[in-house]
Amino acid sequence: MNLFKFNLTLTAIFVVLLFFQVPFYNEWLYGKVINVNNSIFDQMQNLDTSYRKAYRFGGSYLAYQDMKTKLTKMGGGAVTLLLPPNDYLKAMGVNDISMCEPAEFYYFTGLNSVWANSPDVARANWAVVAMKGKGISLMKIKSKPQLDSLITQYKPFIK
Length: 159
Description:
Helix content is 53%, strand content 13%. By secondary structure, it is α/β, with parallel strands linked by helices.
């Protein structure tokens, strides 16, 4: 009976080791579980939720927070932000940030946002605009023709 338990234990260990040899699971193991940069002692020193979100979500989260800060400084009031498609950003040469879904953007910033193909796109009063060689900037939408012009620019890049 003890030999059977020993063989069963060795088989289980072998299966687990084989499981983590698959590249996807191996990357997860070394990226999330056995990560030297993610020690419990470092996390105990930084208990602030904004620090943890920035550490977990990275550069895009910081860019979204920066947009929120700029909009509040500009006196945005009730903001609904028009987000450009990611393909449009890549076509304009902006490769260091990608736009998330409006629901995710709300989670990160607390600001409402829409895509160009959203049914309530007419509520947008601010837009994220990309310019070749200059990156992205925020622009206040002052009129319906200006909004229509932005939507027309984004249409070829909407899937």
